[in-house]
Each structure stands twice: as C-alpha cells, then as structure tokens.
User: Fold this.
Amino acid sequence: MSQLLDGQSIKTALLEVIEGFQKGGPGQFQQGSILQQTANNLGISRNVEKEQMLLTVWADLFRTGYLAWGYDLNNTNPPFCHVTSNGRDLLKHLSVDPFNSDGYLSNLSNIQNLNQIAKSYIEESLKTFNNNCYKAAAIMVGAASESIILELRDALISKIDTLGISPPSKLKDWRIKTIFDSMKNLLDNKKINMPARLKDNYEVYYPTFTQQIRVGRNDAGHPNSIEPVTSEQVHSSLLIFPELCKIAYELKEWITNSYT
Assistant:
C-alpha cells in the first residue's frame, strides 16, 4: 500500500487520525502519538521516505493554521498541540472540504461525472488552493464552472435544434456572461414547466452560485490589489462548485427530456 501513497493520501489519513484524537487530553493529543498512529494505519513505519512525507504534511498543518503548538498553559511546548478553530471547522466537513482533495473529489463524483475539462481545472484548483495559491485557485475553479455552463449550453442548443428552432445567436457567443444571460432568458421563459424542486433551485441558487464563482475568477484575473481574493472567498467558491454541478446537471437532464 505504501508505495502507492502520495502527499494527499497521507494528509487524508493524518486528518482522520487527528479527528479521532482531538477529544482526548494532552496525554493523547501529542505529536508522537498522532504521527505513530497515522504511520501504523498507512503501513509506512520504517519507510524513511514515506515517514518524511508524513512529517512534511504534519508541518504543513501548522503552517496553514489548522494546528498550533501547546495544549494549555501547563503544556505550552511540543509535543503538546491542539486543533485551532479553523482546524475544527475543517474536521466538521472533513470528507468534503477542499482541504481534503480526495474526499472532495469523491463527493463530487457522487453528484455527477464531470466532463474532462471541468475535472482537470477543479483538480488543479484544489492543488493550488492547498498550496496557498489563492489567486490561481480562484481562476481555476472559475474556469471549471464555465466548462459546466458551456456543457449545459450545448445541451440546450442541441434540444432547440431538435425542435426545429434557430438558437439565439448570443447563445453561441464567445463571452461567458453573454452566453449565461442568453441561456437564463430562455430558461426563465420555460421555468413554469420545471418540476417544483428544480424550479426553486434554479431561481434561488443557480444564478447566485455562478455569479459568486465568476466574480471571484474575474477579481483574480483582473487584479486591483495584491490580494484581490482571500482564502475564505476561494474556499467558499470551491464548496459551492459541487452544488453548481448538481443543479446544472439536473437542468441538463430536464432540458434533454422535457424542454419544449
């Protein structure tokens, strides 16, 4: 098993151990105990290369603010440590949080099989996000969302063609906002025919999701400051992306089967 491990797999295993240890006192939540348990779970004990990878991931949790040294004022130094508030938030959503790329992508695949373009961009967005490259991550998640929108647009054009109607010219424009607005106009005129749940999701969430990701991408791509986007904004966009996919693919299915 160990030869198949990469940094992300080790990080996932380490976070799972931390989640189990966090409720213990200082006698349990110590560096040595956590790392040894993780190494045992992964089967990498005495494999120096893999143990060093584990140590690197462990250090990165402190660098990114998910762990901090010390347990209390009586145990202020290593090996005592604790999970920060950011770390506790992460552990609450461990299986789907962008920080856990494997869990995030697994959850995303359960919603819908992404087209290969969107998948490649969202995978790169996760890599850049987890390396604190937030501007790059914002652009990548924006590009992934645009790919999903274009996939939905293509389905709409295909359906309109089968109905013997000429699609609006703006639906084939090169600008994503023009395409999105044209598509929204068409769907708004047909939403009365949507199932109630899909109609509600479309009206409330779809424009909001798309707008937030698009704005984050544009802020990063056309900067007016050194930090045009924050880690929180990118984190939010990554959390929203699976919901965007879910709604977009529900719309695609409805367009294919029921749009008239």
